[in-house]
Amino acid sequence: MWMSKWIILLSVFLAISAQKIIHFNSSLENTTEGEELHITCSFDNSTSSMYIGRNGSRICTFTHGPPQEKCDTTHVGRRMLYGNRKYYECCIKTTDLGTSLTVIINKTRKEDNGIWVCSANQIRELQLVVKYLPSIKNITTKPNGENITDGSSVQLSCSVDSVPESNITWSVNGKVVDNQRPVIENVTCQDGGRYVAKCIAQNIVGNSAMKEHIVNVYCPPRANPKEMPKTQMIASLEDSVTLTATLMAYPAPNFTWKYLLEDKTEKIISDHRITTESDKLTSSLHIPDIQEYDYGYYIMYATNVLDSTSFKFILKKADDNKLGTGIGIGFIVGLLVMGVIVVIVFLIWKKRGETGVNFKEMFQIQKKPPRRASSADTSSTTRKPSTTQTAAVKFDKIPDATYEGLDSTQPRVDQTYEGLLPNISLKQAYEEQEIYENQVVT
């Protein structure tokens, strides 16, 4: 009986001891991608074999042997070697008290995330968290596909891989959208029918990730309201002209230009002078050195997989007589302007002449008065010219009427030139001169 009790007690002891012989240093490890990490599993008692693994793969293994302490790749699973570079390294340390097995990860990767196990006669688990930058897997739309029908709504979704979770922001055609799953309402093919959606993801690890997605809006060709074509052109002979149309359409249409005759029939343009050029949504017809037969109607067709549309242009001959009439009107207007200028100058000149110098009077007063006749001559009863020297009448001194006679050091009496003669007026001087010239000799 006592033997049976002893066997039961020993079995319980072994069971309790077995639960404590294996353990990791911790149950959770955190690191960042690219860093070095040590994962250690310890055994309180020696055991025949043990290993550390992840996702069903044994990374480091150990078989019981003599006490030792070493680190190498001998016990690393062959599948864990990446090229010539050692990715994992195993370190083993055994003593009489127990054994420890360590996996050294030289540079952690996001693939190292997950549950690690240490196994001997029991299994212990370790949760490893490797934080890494976000990467955007894909951008999806609802409805599915990149090509959406004109007038519908589109929901965008961005799939991001990162630890920890990333914050996602959106922009559509350069405008930031404050929504994790934005919806583009009532899409239109205007501006090429292309919506550039950008998903931007960022977490605490570092730099953000960005990916673009193009949403193409299917629509038939039609006029672009921002660039309506000029359908009527006027040009002279031997000039050049270009007819141009810019449309809205997706996919990009094919363009065809034709003559539109008076009877409404169409004719292929075969004149080698006339050239066409098309670039996605714009097409042009260039006519150099215009001839008489170039005037008239032209029609352009734009066609894609959805539909077709057309635009009619007319090229008219310029009226050269209108150019001559314009020149004549310009000449008359020029003459009228010149006449107005002459009148204004004349009025200004006249106004200034009223207060200016009368040069004629100034030159007349510079004539010297004649001398008086002698007493013998004055007794004669007949009037005849004086031939003898007469005595000069004494005048107050009159300054010379020339500019040299002006004394700039004296204050001006008047703002006119007459004010420069302080003692006698011009009129008075002239009358006295005339009196002496007409005296009768007696």
UniProtKB/TrEMBL annotation:
UniProt entry keywords in alphabetical sequence: Disulfide bond, Glycoprotein, Immunoglobulin domain, Membrane, Signal, Transmembrane, Transmembrane helix
TM annotation in the entry: 327-349
Region span, Disordered: 368-389
Signal peptide, first to last residue: 1-18
Domain Ig-like as annotated: residue spans: 134-195
Low complexity: bias regions: 372-383
Pfam families associated with the record: I-set, Ig_3
SMART domains, sorted: IG (SM00409), IGc2 (SM00408)
SUPFAM superfamilies, per database record: Immunoglobulin
Designated name of the protein: Ig-like domain-containing protein
Organism this protein belongs to: Lottia gigantea (Giant owl limpet)
